[in-house]
Amino acid sequence: AQSVAQPEDQVNVAEGNPLTVKCTYSVSGNPYLFWYVQYPNRGLQFLLKYITGDNLVKGSYGFEAEFNKSQTSFHLKKPSALVSDSALYFCAVRDMRGGSYIPTFGRGTSLIVHP
Amino acid sequence: ETGVTQSPTHLIKTRGQQVTLRCSSQSGHNTVSWYQQALGQGPQFIFQYYREEENGRGNFPPRFSGLQFPNYSSELNVNALELDDSALYLCASSSASGNYNEQFFGPGTRLTVL
Hints:
The structure holds 2 protein chains of 2 kinds. Chain A is mainly beta. Chain A contains no helices and 12 strands. In chain A, strands 2, 5, 6, 10, 11 and 12 form a 6-stranded mixed sheet that branches. Chain B is mainly β. Helix content of chain B is 0%, strand content 50%. In chain B, strands 2, 4, 5, 6, 9, 10 and 11 form a 7-stranded mixed sheet that branches. In chain B, strand 4 and strand 5 form a beta hairpin.
């Protein structure tokens, strides 16, 4: 069975500093990996995805993520955090096998960027 | 381009009742998925519909059922409501059922079961 772990419930960072939100995954085949962001009282918004190819993926709002197959990780990063980046971030994985489609989301990490 | 919309925004029901939640997918999308997001948790996949057929289901009992209509809008029906069904229900659409496509989420319906 596939699974996603976001080991930190909360990440605190000062505005202007780099940020990292961690995600590790477990799948039996090759993974499709996604990051979504959720603002209060809103649905999830897509940030970026890894399907294949370059291990460094660039996404919306200056975010990027690095796929590391040996460590089964897909950490979300941003070189310089903004207060407006404060939100709930979810990592998700889909198994690359065909057939039934069952995506798995992590529990989420609350990012707080301090002015 | 119209985004994903859901109705109602909030709903209060009592245990044992039935509820229907509605979703209009983003223009051009033919795939709709439903998720349950309990407080403090990530979204849990309920099921997906592609061209009016269910083509994937998560670990939810049969009292959770759905429909997709020819215009690709969708309904989620929950029978015999239980207290643990209280959650935010999210609908998401995508342009195909492929595993690699990102999804576009609606704002959700907050269901409270008393």
